[in-house]
Amino acid sequence: MSDLDSFRAETRAWLEANCPPEMREPVQGEEDVYWGGRKATFKSDAQKAWFEACRDKGYTVPAWPREYGGAGLSPPEAKILREEMARINARPPLSSFGIWMLGPALLKFGTEEQKRKYLNEIARGEIRWCQGYSEPGSGSDLVSLQTFGEDKGDHWIVNGQKIWTSYADKADWIFCLVRTDKSNKYQGITFMLFDMESPGVSTKPIKLISGNSPFCETFFDDVKVPKDQYVGEINRGWDVAKYLLGHEREMISGADNSERGAGIGAMLKRQTGELDPVLRAELALFDVDALAFSAMAEKFLDEVKVGKAHPAQPNMMKYAGTELNKRRHELMMAAGGSAALEWDSEESRGGSAARSWLRTKANSIEGGTSEVMLNVIAKRILELPGA
Amino acid sequence: MPLYHDDDQAMLADTASQFMAEEGAIAKQLRHWRDRECKDGFGHALWKQMAEMGFTGILVPEADGGLGMGHVEAGIVLEEIGRNLTPSPFLTSSVVAATALGQANDDLRGRWLPGLIAGDSVFAVAIDEGAKHRPERIATRAEKSGNGFKLSGRKDFVVQGASADMIVVAARTSGTEDDADGVTLFAVPKDAAGLDHNAVRLVDSSMASHLTLDGVELDGDAVIGEVDGGREILNRMLDAGRVGAAAEGVGVARGAMDMTVDYLKQRKQFGKLIGEFQALQHRAAHLYSEVEIARAATIKAQQLLDAGAENASLMASVAKAKVGKAAGLAVKEGVQMHGGIGMTDEYDIGLYMKRDRALAEFMGDVHYHAGRVAELSGY
Fold first, then answer.
1. CB A358 within 8 A of CB A206
2. Neighbour-count burial for A163-181, b at 16+ CB within 10 Å, e otherwise
3. Can you tell me which residues the record assigns to a coiled coil (chain B) (predicted)?
4. CA-CA distance, B289 to B326, in Å (whole number)?
5. Strands B183-189 and B223-224
6. Which of A191, A229, A322, B145 suits a disulfide with A237, CB 3.0-4.6 Å?
7. Which of residues 2-31 of B touch A (CB under 8 A)?
8. Nearest chain A Cα to B323, which residue?
9. Which of A140, A282, A299 should we substitute to test contact with B (largest number of B Cβ atoms within 10 Å)?
């Protein structure tokens, strides 16, 4: 038996012993997702047990080094763990912008001290992070941002407003793009980290068309940020931000979770009984695209691991993945018929079909619009001339 | 197994890419034979050269003198064939017929495989009986006659049928047209009495034949596999053909896309390179995404087929359908973005459109395979 075969056998046995049956069911609603943080509570004992078992094993961030709270798995081992978790439909033990976005940026740009502190907190689910990128005047055009940090010697005084800060009202800390030099558009931004409980930070949820409000407006009024709380170099935060955006796009595309790319025809047939022949045909054509995208997601992750992927490829994954996800929810609404319209009944799990359908419309806006993704593909991959 | 080519496969890709770009180029092969109204639609000299490169026996086991490689490797050669629109019997002979012969007895292997490996023989496969690919339905009959069989019926759009030294024919030895069981495969030599071809030239300048079998007498040893038990081998041939056609289609799509993107960087209108216009940039970027995804699906299907995985056949249909969509988009955008010259025979982009159309029908189109994905998924 090769090392990888025995790793698979061990992993299977470990999951069997540690993943409670309730954690092997698809996530139904927001309360099924555990985000960690100072204010976190568990929905059930099973959720708590599953999180703690993974945390202690380093499986909240399996590929991170052990000294930073991970399990130090090699890429093939991490893939085996993913496959084995997918095989039993295990839920992610911890969801976190710290894992998906800040962590990879710290691993690349952070100091040893920052890595030991922040990565361990993320891996152990102790601190919940939110992201401060967009501003009212700077959505996809991030370099136009205005939030300003004034240099006060040993600290900055930050003033400005962020928008679309997901779960800012529930987060403990924020990673944030702040202009520190007004004379240079690109090289005048610093990537700062600070506690959301700092005096002068306030948040207000934005109600969306889905009726939910995961997003907030966040205001900074003379917020004091110590001078050592930045990542990368001062005024070179754009390098960190660009790197991190790559990970964000990957995440939104669903490339990290190829299950989302799987077909839906069979599931809808089970749920709704007979399918209208034209709908069946549309579902079949959708499933072709979805199963093909799932292969693409697997190929992309394999290539990322060995540095074969084009640096702008996450933009393609984000574009294709989010457009696919919107189409998926359009079809789910069509198959569900009037039942999918229910807004707040218990039967409809609080209108989850309708709310999810509306939520997906943001997929091709957040993290850079589809149009911005197409611009990047055209210029950086196809090398078409600039206007 | 990671979903990209390993070092050996990447080396094969370099070799195949260089060889096809030089020897299989559009001007040297497709246009050359088309303009001479070649009755085969391809050049035998190139086929011989492909044999010298080792390509012809790529899927033939080493014990039979081949290279014993898999569908990933065959796909590498097919992608380059597609990119250069190289007319060649590779797909029908080295992929589909070779898959059938892999299941044949020693006599048949000894009789046909050396010629394939040497590039002296070409093979065809006769499955369809009508304008659309419907392999579930086999009406051609094979009746017991002496110690052999007598075949009667008609097969349509047999690619390179009239040029083939041997044709793998799917016929019915029992049951009725729509039965899964009762199908038998035969290796029919070109000189068999009662075999008649009505050869037609298709839109892409390739040749296909309407095959009439009028009491074609064959010895019992012409049977590939078991009598009445041919459906399983036929399904393997079909999967090999689906994945192979998908790989060639990826090459067609990439060839058309590369040509178009190059054109966007050269052609000026309104005082600008047309590639500067966002309307065209977005369409080109969308096309790129579709072609990359189609290619990933194809490599996945090749790997699953090589691994003998349970879901290989599902993924083969996913790949054929996805490539059908993506390559169709590539050639349509290609002709449109080239503007008026895209409609001229002088420019190659239209040739990509023609080849894509023929390849889209071969082994089942988007609709057939999407339907199959639905059925295999249980709806």
1. no
2. bbbebbbbbbbbbbbbbbe
3. none
4. 9
5. antiparallel
6. A191
7. 2-4
8. A292
9. A299
d(CA B184, CA B200): 27
Structure tokens at A79: 């893939």
The span from the CA of A103 to the CA of A122, in Å, is: 8
Provide the annotated active-site residues of A: 248
Contact B185, B167 (CB under 8 A): no
Residue B379 forms contact with A (CB below 8 Å): yes
The token duo for A233 is 């170099």
Alpha helices in B88-152 (DSSP H): 98-101, 106-118
Please say whether the beta carbons of B199 and B249 come within 8 A. Answer: no
Length of chain B: 379
Mean predicted confidence (pLDDT) in A46-61: 96
Q: Which residues in chain B have Cβ-Cβ distances shorter than 8 Å to A378?
A: 281-282, 284-285
C-beta separation of B327 from B25 below 8 A: no
Percent of chain B exceeding pLDDT 70 equals 100
Q: What is the CA radius of gyration of chain B?
A: 21
**Confidence band for A387, pLDDT divided at 50, 70 and 90:** low
Max CA distance (Å), chain B = 78
**If we measure between CA atoms, which residue out of A207, A241, A199 comes closest to residue A101?**
A241
Question: Strand pairing partners for A36?
Answer: none
Q: CB distance B321–A288 less than 8 Å? A: yes
pLDDT of residue A250 exceeding 80: no
Q: What is the pLDDT of residues B162-205, one digit of tens each?
A: 999 999 999 999 999 999 999 999 999 999 999 999 999 999 99
Which residue does chain B place closest to A298, by CA atoms? B3
The tokens for A307 are 């540095």
Mutate to test the interface with A, among B257, B291, B373, B376 (most CBs of A within 10 A): B373
* pLDDT per position as a tens digit, A18-49: 999 999 987 777 778 999 999 999 999 999 99
Measure in Å the smallest separation between the Cα of A293 and chain B Cα atoms: 6
| Among candidates A287, A296, A308 on the partner chain, residue whose Cβ is nearest the Cβ of B292 | A296
CB B247 within 8 A of CB B95: no
Considering only alpha carbons, which residue of chain A is nearest residue B259?
A382
Nearest alpha-carbon partner for B88 in B53, B52, B48 = B48
The count of other CB atoms within 10 Å of the CB of residue A153 is 6
Chain B contact set for A295 (CB, 8 A)? 3, 293, 296-297, 299-300, 315, 318
Note the maximum CA span of chain A. 70
Nearest CA-CA distance, residue A324 and chain B, Å: 12
Distances (CA, A) of B372 to A293, B134, B179, B311, B378: 18, 11, 17, 13, 10
Give, in order, the Cα–Cα distances in Å from B195 to each of B108, B126, B161, B200, B214.
20, 12, 11, 16, 6
> In whole angstroms, what is the distance from residue A247 CA to residue A109 CA?
14
Quote ipTM for the complex: 0.95
CB contact under 8 A, B319 and A292: yes
Residue B254 at interface with chain A, using a CB cutoff of 8 Å = no
Mean pLDDT for A284-300 is 94
C-alpha span between B379 and A282 (Å, rounded): 12
CA distance A103 to A250: 14
Question: Where are the alpha helices (H) located in chain B, listed in sequence order?
Answer: 7-23, 30-35, 44-52, 71-83, 98-101, 106-118, 231-264, 278-307, 312-338, 349-361, 366-376
Rounded CA separation B366/B321 (Å): 4
Residue B378 contacts A where some CB pair is shorter than 8 Å: yes
Q: Show which of residues 291-310 on chain B sit within 8 Å of chain A, judged by CB atoms.
A: 292-294, 296-297, 299-300
Which of B2, B278, B300 is closest, CB to CB, to A295? B300
